[in-house]
Amino acid sequence: MTAYIIRRLLHLGPVLLIVSAIVFFVFRIIPGDQAVLRLGEEADAASVARLRRELGLDRPVVVQYAAWLGAALRADLGESHLNRQGVFSLVVEKFPATLQIALLGMAGSLMLSVPLGILAALRRGTWWDQLTRVAALVGFSVPRYWLAVLLILVFAVRWRVLPPAGFAPFTEDPLASLRFATLPVLVVALSLAAVQMRFLRSSMLEVIDQDYIRTARAKGLGGRVVVLRHALKNALIPFVTVLGLEFGSLLGGLVVVEQIFNWPGVGWLMVQSIIHRDYAVVQGAVLLVATGFVTINLLVDVAYAALDPRIRYS
Amino acid sequence: MGRRSRTMLTRRQFVTGAAALAAGGALRWAVPATAAPATGPPPARPTPGGVLRVTLGAEPTTLDPHRSSTLFDFHVKDAIFDGLLEDDFTQGPKGQLAESWESPDASTYVFRLRPGLRFHDGQPLTAEAIKFSVERSLTQGTGQPRVLVEQIAATEVLDPRTVRFRLKAPNAAFLLDAADIKVVPPNFDERNPVGSGPFQFVEWVRLRHVRLRKFSGYYQNGRPYLDELVFLPTPDENQKLVLLESGQVEFTDTVPLPRVQAVRQAGRVRVHGIPPGVSPSSYYLLTRADRPPLDNLKVRQAISFAIDRKALLEVTFGEGTLKSNAIPPKHWAFNPQSVSFDERDLPRARRLMSESGVGAVTLQLKHLTSRAEFFPIAQVIQANLAEIGIRVELVPQQIGIWINQVLVQRDFQLGLTGVIPPYDPDSILGNLFSIRRVNGRAIGWRHELFEKQLDQGRSVVRQADRKRVYDHAQLIVQYDAPGIILNERPILYGALPSVQGFAPDVRQHMHFHGVWLAR
Amino acid sequence: MHTPPWTRAFAIPRLLGVLRRDRGALVGALLFAAVVLAALFAGALTPYDPLAVRMQERLQLPSARHLLGTDELGRDLFSRILHGGRASLSVGVVAVGIAATAGTAMGLVAGYYGGPLGAVLMRTVDGLLAFPALILAMALTATLGPSLTNAAIAIGIVTIPAFARLAQASALAIKEREFTDAARACGASDLYVLVRVLLPNHLSPLMVQTSVSFANAILTEAALSFLGLGIQPPTPSWGAMLDTGRRYLDQTAWYSMAAGGAILVAVLGLNLLGDGLRDALDPRLRGARTARLAEEHSG
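Predict the joint structure of the above. Result:
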């Protein structure tokens, strides 16, 4: 077990290195110079040159990369060129908002997908199963932003029951915060539930089909009890790993939802920074999100291995 | 003899003009200046207190008043910093930091400050601070704030409350520029900006808000009424309305045009605006007039004739008004004799194109994204110009980038923006077209006679004489079309009914020192 | 694998067989075919030029003249939706083309050779995989400049990992089989083994992945256009129309809804088809392939 963990950790290092390299070099393709961007209008050639030297833009690219990486390891990701706020603190500041939607969204999705998924597996072949499958497929195919616009139209415009947008930090005003979060959470929950339902159903079915379940049935235990106890338990492990992966990708994947609802989370920060050409922020945010994602993947893999001994040797 | 009277002040004009200014100055010396009058229904007594939350179309680029470049910078700047005079000149100049002024001639201006002025941190505001601010604008400023002070040859502190400016060249419109020179203390730090305006800086949380609170030492007794003023950058226009209608903000800096009519009818929020035809606000199409094919006069004229301004008026849902002259139709300097492109003339445009000798061509149009209507306006232009053989590529750009590429680096062919120059015709025509100022420099249109007209307009004092000059200048610039005006850009604000005391100004700057919230 | 090795000759009849048996896949195939045909023959299906600006007719609701109404510049919405399909589909084709070629090559090579080369290749793939797909695509189009081509390239790059992982798994599974050993015993070169043995046996998972990734490419392109980073006006694009339509919900909800509906139909068709293919061609794939399912749904 420890050998596995160590192996995965060793795996982590090079991946993160490659991630940082991709992040760094992608932003080097930008036409236009950070120095000119910073100094803005009427900048004369001399001050631009001076600032370039200060920012280290005249050194070879590889050296710049090394310097940037070194600083990043010390949690120094530069500063936003608009108001000099540190990138790291900016991202950390916006993170709770994204976390709020991610957690509530996942909770909501589970409330939908678990009962429905199990029911669909139990009543396999009936119309109920078909309905769930279709709903899941549609939910899976619907673009989230369309769903968002649709929900806004229905709940906020036609039936004025929910606020179409707005934000209040949870720590300051939890009730208002939850009210504003309702629509974005609904969007996330519905789309996540669709994926989860499909998955839960298929992994339960896989288990139900297996021999040992038939054997247990033959031994005379009640059908439903058998399924719920054995099938669910076995399907749970991969299901939990899916959840972990979903969560990891949600952290960066809420971009469009945050954009529509003007929800100031990490994804929203990235879009705004791209618009304002604040590339230091985009770079830092992408790096942090990717690192988080890789780390969560690692944790998920380790948990999966711990729970299911069959996987460890693959 | 006729020539002499046109280019130089005659003795009589000089004396009359100077006397008028002196009299006005003496009058102001004796009578305290008033703030801009609030329009609208006669108010109940203002109730102090409350927080006003205002949306902004974009994050400000800086809080340094000498480096501000976008409208959103200006909104915040006007709350934190004061200048010598107030912004809105439609009813004549009004003193802000200055309680009186005089101008012995068009190159010399003396301002007397109010007594007891202070900065937010308690430092006294004296003539020294004025001098410091001017010098800082020159050394560290950029863009318009710097260009304004470049005309000053010397700033002299006569006594702690009196400052004298000597200009390099006569400028009858200098008072307007004085309004834009914002005053900062000698230890100014942009991370914690200190000014002397009605509100003082609390914090700027990127992408979240700019928070200001009331400056209790403001020179206008009792004002500002509000305890706090919070600006919320909200790039999505619909979002602004949503926030307003749900009561999360009290004031929006724009109203999405497709919703204006519905909002007015619903009556839940109020729409404040400037009546059409008054404001110099315009949609403005810059051309790179010193490079082919746009260096060809006929091409520019063809473009202006080919654009369907009626269709553009539809894009703005009827808000604003049809115009093709930078000087608004209700302005005293408007010259109805100058070429008008109000009516689309496609056959003439086509004729001009073929006469120009320029064949089918592709032009890049860089346009702003700060208002949603820029997109359909750009597409209408694209469709219109396709009909005269010009293929247009659209490049939407965020305002900071647009300013950098179009105005600074001049890397553009066509540039679409919205402008609101100050009310004086020298500012309207000069800021938009003169090669010595930012927009004109980007355009690159050199016209000796036009520049001479501008100089003359600045040196002449009587309005009737100035009108003659500007009539002539309009004839020139309308004919040459170095920059093309595409209708008035509507100025509309949204506000909850509880917001009282707000008066829109023709420059679209929002002023909140007289605003209060009714309970 | 318990089925005989596949060569390309068997693929098409097998595919048709799947469609005959699985109703879901058939519906999916028909939906998608409808989208493709509508896009291809857009010009013939509607008399309106999708770019023709007619301000007098702006923002109309559906009528006999305009099946879905008009947009803010008076352009016929139905026509723009059909033509928008062209943009979305071409981005999908290019993106999946790039991803399938590069990804499959990387994966097969990594799986077959293993060792340090394989490790480097797969670490790179893992690196790419670490980014939420939309974020990386956004970053790429932001730096390269927003356009149809760049969006296609960006999405292609972002989709490579899915194909690479799949190909690697295939290669690992197949390289130990008898026919591989037999081929090598006959003196076949590495290249021959890769192209003539490994690749054909990889076709069925490849087909499944292609349809799923195509669906994702359409979704991602729409998201990019929605954010203003993809196809630029006046070229119609479903994502951009969905976004622009939000401004005019008061005047006509059909604007946004139709654009979103078009995306839904295309993606649904592809997903149905993919599901059917997966169920029929490789039952193992139905199971706990955690990585793939989680990857599939992007922001």
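The two ends of chain C are 34 Å apart (CA to CA).
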